[in-house]
Amino acid sequence: MGTGRKRRLHLSNIYSFKCGRNRFDDDHSQIGGPGFSRVVYCNESGVSEAGSHSYSDNYVRSTKYTPMTFLPKSLFEQFRRVANFYFLVTGILSFTELAPYSAVSAILPLIVVIGATMVKEGIEDWQRQKQDHEVNNRKVKVHRGGGVFESREWKNLRVGDVVKVEKDEFFPADLLLLSSSYEDAVCYVETMNLDGETNLKLKQSLDATSTIHNDSDFNNFRATVKCEDPNASLYTFVGTMEYQDQQYALSPQQLLLRDSKLRNTDYIYGAVIFTGHDTKVIQNSTEAPSKRSGIERRMDTIIYFLFFILFLMAFLGSVYFGVVTKRDLDGDRQKRWYLGPDRAKIFFDPNRAPAAAIYHFLTALLLYSYLIPISLYVSIEIVKVLQTIFINNDIHMYYEEADKPAHARTSNLTEELGQVDTILSDKTGTLTCNSMEFIKCSVAGTAYGRGVTEVERAMAKRTGSPLIVNGRDQLLDEPNDDDSTLSVKGYNFEDERITNGYWIHEPHSDVIQKFFRLLAICHTAIPDVDEETGKVTYEAESPDEAAFVIAARELGFEFYKRTQTTVSFMELNPVTKQRVERTYELLNVLEFNSARKRMSVIVRDDAGKLLLLCKGADSVMFDRLAKNGREFEENTKEHVNEYADAGLRTLILAYRELTEEEYKEFNEKFTEAKNSVSADRDELIDEATEEVEKDLILLGATAVEDKLQKGVPECIDKLAQAGIKIWVLTGDKMETAINIGFACSLLRQGMKQIIITLESPEIIAAEKGGDKAVISKVSKESVKTQILAGKAQLSASTTDPLALIIDGKSLAYALHDDIKGTFLELAVGCASVICCRSSPKQKALVTRLVKEGTGKTTLAIGDGANDVGMLQEADIGIGISGVEGMQAVMSSDIAIAQFRYLERLLLVHGHWCYRRISSMICYFFYKNIVFGTTVFLYEAYASFSGQPAYNDWYLSLYNVFFTSLPAIALGVFDQDVSARFCLKFPLLYQEGVQNTLFRWRRIFGWMLNAYGAMPTSISTDAYKVFVETLVPAPSYWVVTLYVVIAALVPYFCYKAVQMRFFPAYHGMIQWIRYEGNTDDPEYVNMVRQRSIRTTTVGFTARKRDNLWLIS
Amino acid sequence: MDQKNKNSNKPIYSRFSQQELHAWKPILTPGWVIASYIAIGALFIPIGFLAWSASDRVVEIVDRYDEHCVPEDFSSNPQSFIQNPGIKKTCTRTIIVPKKLVAPIFVYYQLENFYQNHRRFVKSRSDKQLRDPKAENDTKHCLPEAYTADNKPIVPCGLIAWSLFNDTYKLSTRGKEISIERKGIAWKSDAKAKFGSNVYPKNFQKGGLVGGATLDETIPLSKQEDLMVWMRTAALPTFRKLYGKINTDIEAHDTIKVEIENNYNTYKFGGRKKLVLSTTTWIGGKNDFVGVAYISVGGICLFMAINFILLYVFRPRRLGDPSYLSWNRHPITLNPSSL
Questions:
Q1: Cβ of B338 and A1092 within 8 Å?
Q2: A428 labeled binding residue
Q3: How far apart are CA B136 and CA A217, in angstroms?
Q4: Is B27 within 8 Å of A334 when comparing Cβ atoms?
Q5: Which ipTM was obtained for this model?
C-alpha cells in the first residue's frame, strides 16, 4: 500500500524534538545490578545462550482457574464461605450415629448447592478462556532467520525475537524499536489502551539501527540489550544496547508497549524485550479480584448472628438434655424405664451424662442447621443470573449502531448497582465519543455557527423553551441529528453566511479569509491525498487539530500538501470564483506545550510577506494582542465565554506581520536555542518564542466540540439528581478535562474551582535543581498546603459548590498515606472532582481511596486498557464496549455500549435488583428462622433429645426446594415501581444508596415477624396428633386457613401503618400512580420537586442558578 | 477480517423480557386496609363460632385412674405394687355420663409425661423387620431390645414395641357390658404396608426385662392393631391413643363402670394415665382452641378496622405526602427555589 504514497518527510526537521539525543545518565550505571538484570540477545532465537534465560513466554492468561486447578481451587473457594463449610461439617457428621436424620438427606442439598455454583463458575471462566485464546492466537510477523519473516501466533513469541508490525496492528509484546518505514526511524503510536490519550505519540529508534529497512537485513543483525527487570512503570525504561561493538543508551523513547497500536507508519521492526506477564501493561493490571457485594457481606454477618443463635440453642438444649438424662437413672432405679437407660450407649447414658450432653450438642448443631439457609447463596446466585439475563435483554440498553446489547459479565454484583454512591468515570471514549467537531467560530466579533451542542440541547430540553441561537429561534424538533446524519466527521458547522463561499459577502470578509487561512496553515497535520478521488484526508496528532484542518477544507481552504518547507492549500478566489493554489513557505513551527498553551507557525506567503500565525488558549492569547489588534476583543471574549459555557473547547486565533529584521533576529535566537545542548534548552526556546509571539492582531475564536456521547449530560443530570457523585479521572490534560467538565455540566460558571497542581514556579525551580529528594519534599509540601487551603475554602463557603481539579503529579503526592485522608475529605466535600493526567495506577488508587475511605459503593466506568485497574478496584466496574480494544470490557463486570445506558442500568435495574435481592434475603432469613425455631421449640416437648419435628426429607428439602422457589420468584420478578417511574423519580435511587431496604432494623423486623408467626406454626405440629386420628378432617383445613391468615395479619398491620405514616419513597410513587395523577404534570412535578434535593452538578443545578439570577 | 455479524445481537422484544408485564401491585390505601380488615373479621368470627360450637357439642369424659388404682397400702410406694406380679391389678372406676354420648364413641387412653418422642425411643425400631419375615435379624437400630439373652432376634424389636401399653378396660352400664370395637383403630396404611401379614411375633418380651404387653405369637403383626397404634409414636409427651370404638349410644346420667387392668408402669417416671371417652363432630374431638383463636383474630381485625376508620376520620392525610419520607423528616436545608 505504500507504493502510491509520497516520500515521507523527515519529521524531525520540523519538530524540535524534546528528547534529543540519549545520554548516559545515573540510571544507566545501575544496569547489571539488582533490578536491572535483564539481558536480551536479539535475533538469536536459535542460539542456546539465548535460551538459558528462561523468560516467560508471551501467553497471557486472565482466567481464574486452569483445568487442573479448577476442582480444588473452586471447591476451596466454595468452602471458604462459612455457611458452606458448616454444611460440609454437618454433612460429614451426619454419617455418624449422632445424626438426627439420614445422611443422604443432609448431604444431597449441599451437593446440589455446591454443584450449581461450581457449574456457574466454570462457565464464566470458560468464557474468559475463549477471549484469552483469541488474543493469544493473533498473528505477527517474526524473523525466522535468514532474513525471512513468517507469521506466528502471539503466544509463541520469545524474548529476543525480531518482529515486524504493520500499520494499525497492536504490538504483541513490549518491543524495542529498531527501525520504521520512515527514514529517520520514527513511528506514531496510539496509546489509548494504556493511558486513554488519543493523540499519537512519536517514538524514535536509535540512529545506529535506523538504517535497517529490509527484511533481509536482519539476517546478520545481532544486538544485546541489558535493561531493567519487568516493572509496572509505563513511562520509564532504562537499558543499554550493545550493537556492532558499541554501547548505546536506551530510553522510553525506543520502547513500544504491548496493547498500543501502530499508526500512520507503514511498518516497524522491533525486538521483543518483555513478553506476556512481564510486559508493562500486564504488570500494571492487578489480579482480577473476586468481588463481593456489600449486601453479601452483611449477609455474612447475619449468618454469623444465626450461628450464634444456633450455638446458643444447641447449648441450652444440651444442658437440659444432660440434666434430664442424668435423672433417668438414680442408682439402680430407673425413671423413664421405656428408654432403657440402664442399657444405654454413650449418647444417652445417664451414668455419663456430661459426655452424652456434649455429643448431644453436636447432634443439636446438626438439627438446628435449618436455621442457616443453605440454599441462600445458591438461590441468590440463581436470582442474580436471571437478573443479568434481564439486563442483557433490555432493549433500551441495546446500541443499534454497534449492534451491542448490554452484557453483564459477572453476575454477582447486580444489587450493588442499586447502591452506587460515587461514579468514577474515565473521559475519553466514555463521556466523549473521542471525536472533535468544529461547530462554531467567532470571527471579527461576529459569532457564526448554528450547530447545537449536546449541553445546549440538554438544557433546552429541561427548560422546554425553544433554543435561541445567535438571535434566531430554533425549535428542537430534530433531537436525533447525531453522528449518523453527519456528512463529514469532525465537522458540524452550519451557517449559510459562511458556507459555500458566502463569507465574501460578510462585512469583514478579509478577516474571515485570514481566519480560515490560519486554520489551513497553522498546524502539524499531514495530508493524505487519495489519488483516485482526489479527496484529502488528514493525519493529525490530535483530533482537535484534525477538526480545524477539516473545517478549513470544508469552507474552501483545502490544505493538501506539505513538504519539508512549504504548506500548500487550495483557496476559492472570492472574485473569480476559481480555485487558486497557494503555497506558503514554512519557516518555523513553534510547538504547542502545556506551559505555552499556544502554537505558532512563521510563514512567508506567496506575496513574500512574513507572517506569524498563532492559535492558543484565551488565557494566554488576550495578553499578547497588539494595541491595534484589539478591535474585536470585547465581542470575542463574550463569545468565548458563551462557548465555554456550552461545553466547547475554544482557541483564539491571531496573527502578526513580521518584518525581515524581526524575523532574522528571532530566527538566530531560536536556532541557537534549538541547537544548544545545555539543560536550559527548553527555557531558551521559550524565551525566543516569547519575544516574537506578541503584538498579535486578533482574528477570532474557534469552538470545537469534544463531542460528548449522546445523552451524556442528561444522564449525568439524572444521576446527580439520584444523589450519585460523579468523579472524572482522565489521562488527558487539565484544560481538556475542565472543558469536558463544563460540557457535561459537572462544572459550571459560578462554581469555585480548587485547582491543585505542581506547575507553580517554586516547584519548577526545584525541578531544575534536579535533586529528587528536594523535588519530592517541596512538591509534597506544596500539595499539602494546597489541600489544606482547599479545605479552608470548603468550610468557609457553605453555599457555593466547589469543584476540585487535581493533576496527576500532585495526585501522586496527595495519595501518600499521611495526606490522603485530608485529600479525601476535601474531595468528598466538593461537588465535582476531576483528576487529570492520571496514570492507570493512580486511577486505581483513587478508586481504592474512595472505596475504603468512604466505605460506600463505588462504580468505575471506562473503555480503555488504562481503566482496567480502576474497573477492577471499584466495587463495580463498567466497561464501555466502544470502538477500541476489549481490554476494559474484559476486565469489567458489566459492559454497556454507551455511557447514557448507565442511567437505566443504575436507576432501573440497579434499583430493582437491590430491592429484589434485599427482600429475598430477608425472606430467606424469615423462613429459616420460622423453621429453625419451630424445630427448637419442638425439642422442648421432646426433652431435647434431638428428635426432629419433621420428616428427614421434608427437613432438607424445605430449604432447597419447597421454600426457595417462591423466594426466587420474588427475587426475579418483584417490581415496586415500573421502569418509567424509576427514571421519572431518580431520587428513588437513594433507597439503595442509603441502604434503607437492608438496614438492620428491617432485617430484625423480618426476623421478629418470623418469631411472631411461630406460635401458630407450632400448633401445626401439635396437630400431627390430630392428623393421626382424623386425616381427612375438615378441622385440618380450618386450622391451615387460620395459620395462614393469622400469620399474615401482623405483617399486614405493620404494612398498613407503615404505608400511612412512614411511607418509603417507592410507596409514594405507588400512591401517585394509583391516584392516577401521573398524567397531571403539576402534581408529579410537585412531588418530584420535593424529592429533588439540592443538586450541585448537572444542568438542573445550572438552570436553577439561572432562575436565581432572574428572580 | 472483522466480518460483520449478520445475526443482530438486538434483544428480542417481549413484555416479559423487558419486564413490562402487567403487575398487580396493591397499595394499602385506607379503603383497602379497612375493607380487608373487615373482610377478615367477617370471615373469621363466624368460623370461630362454628368451630367453637362444634367443639362445645363434643362430649368428652376424662378419668385419671393411675393414682386411684393403687391400693392404699402401696400409695407411698406404687412401684412395689405395680412391679409385683403376684398382686391382682384390677381396679374399678365409675363414671357418670353428663350428656348423652352419641355413637361412635371413641375410647382413648391418655398418657402424660411419657416421651414417646425421645430420639432414642423413636429410633429404636426396625421397619424392615416389621414388614418382612426374612429381615428378622435386621435389628441394628433396636438396641437394647434387639436380641434375647440367648441371641435370638426379637420380633418386633426395639424399645417402642417392648414398652407396649398393656392396661385394658371393660366398660359396663346398668349391669350390661358395653362392647368396645377393638378392630379398625390403626391406620389402614400401617396394616397394609408397614406391618407384614406374614410376620409373627417371636421371642417378644422374652429378654431379661419385661417392658409392657405381650403379643399373641399366632397373630400376624398386621392384625396387632394395638401395637400399630402404639408404634405411631406421639409427637408430644402428652398424648392420646385410640383404644377402641363404642358403637352404641350411652344416655345421659348413666353410670359407667370401668374395670381396669392397671398393668402399665407410669409411676416410675411420674406419668399419668387417663381414660378418655369422646364423641366427635366435624371439627374432630374437643378442641376449643381453634374456635377461640378464630374469634380473637377476627376480633383484632375488626378492632384494627375501627382504629383505621377513626384515624381516617380524625387525622386524614394527603396521599403521597412527601413530608413523611424518612429523609424529609430530618430535612436538610432545602433550596428556596425548590420549595
A1: yes
A2: yes
A3: 94
A4: no
A5: 0.79
